[in-house]
Amino acid sequence: MPEPRPLISDTRRQLEIAAVVLTAACRFLPINWLEWKLPFIVVATVGWTTYVLLRRKRMPGILQYWGFRADNFREVLKIVLPFGIISVVTFVLLGIYLDTINLTWHIVPVLLLYPVWGTIQQFLVIGLVAGNLKDLSASTLPKPVTILLPALLFGLIHYPFNWLIVGTFLLAGFYGYVYWQSRNLYVLGLFHGWLGGLFFYTVVGRDPFVEVFGKFF
């Protein structure tokens, strides 16, 4: 049975997509140029969390629709887990081949904290962009396009890091497909955080803990 679709106007859906694109565009100045990663993450998290809470108050059931739900956690986990295992093995093999494995104790707090930020990102890219493209009443976009466009957006916001562009594009493409089948942002956010953290320390050879918190230690 298809998921119930709440009565959300096309105008609101389009505005939500535009707001996500604006958030992505604003990422370049604080992160790529000024290296203010933590302030950007905090502002984006607080801003979008506030929006989620306001929408929940005004439209009961919107959280379930977006994918903030636990009833289908196991179902979605069974789909994503094999992809996650294959990804981890691939990361390690690529890291060995490229000689980019850089494992430190920093990976522990990253794997604990990154899923929170990962869930926010999945809500924006998959929940709002892919979900709204899918459910626009006036949309004639075929299913592959509604998956491809958010994946392209997610890949491009990681410019100019080629490995991150490729990795996040593939991740978002797969997640978009999963979201079409059964919406659960918790599973997607959890694996986004874990796979993203491992990807940094194996393939990319960077330390996101230092990049985000380094100025405070």
Summarize the structure in words.
This protein has 217 residues and is an all-alpha fold. Helices cover 76% and strands 0% of the residues. The longest helix is centred in the middle third of the chain and has 29 residues, at 107-135. The chain starts with 9 loop residues before the first helix and ends with a helix.
Percent of residues in helical segments? Answer: over 70%
**How many DSSP helices?**
9
Please state roughly what percent of the residues sit in beta strands, choosing from under 5%, 5-15%, 15-25%, 25-35%, 35-45% or over 45%: under 5%
Count of β-strands:
0
Helix/strand/pairing class, anyone? mainly alpha
* Gyration radius over CA: 17 Å
Low-confidence stretches: none
- The SSE string, one letter per element, is HHHHHHHHH
Give the averaged pLDDT, no decimals: 88
Taking the alpha carbons of the first and last residues, their distance comes to: 51 Å
Shape: globular
Major β-sheet annotation: none
Features:
single chain, 217 residues, mainly alpha, 9 helices
What's a concise summary of this model?
76% of the residues lie in helices and 0% in strands. It is mainly alpha-helical and 217 residues long.
Q: How does the SSE layout of this entry go?
A:
Elements: H1 10-33, H2 37-58, H3 62-66, H4 73-98, H5 107-135, H6 143-156, H7 162-181, H8 185-204, H9 208-213
Helix pairs in contact: 1-2, 1-5, 4-8, 5-6, 5-7, 5-8, 6-7, 7-8
